[in-house]
Amino acid sequence: MAQRPDPSKALIRLPQVQAIVPYSRSTIYSLIAAGDFPAPVKLGPRASAWVKSEVEAWAESRIAEREESAA
């Protein structure tokens, strides 16, 4: 019996990342270089993807920071 893929490990490409976090490509890569955004997984010489749950967790942490600073 084949195992089902773990949805928490789903990989998404840059357009889907930008749908979650509306930053430009260059801003996302600048944040990665600064260590402030999840790094992509290399799929091949010219293809990368992000772990969806990591991107969503990053976005949630930004929301939590906002709520903490407002309190």
UniProtKB/TrEMBL annotation:
<dbReference type="Pfam" id="PF05930">
    <property type="entry name" value="Phage_AlpA"/>
</dbReference>
<dbReference type="InterPro" id="IPR010260">
    <property type="entry name" value="AlpA"/>
</dbReference>
<protein>
    <submittedName>
        <fullName>AlpA family transcriptional regulator</fullName>
    </submittedName>
</protein>
<dbReference type="InterPro" id="IPR052931">
    <property type="entry name" value="Prophage_regulatory_activator"/>
</dbReference>
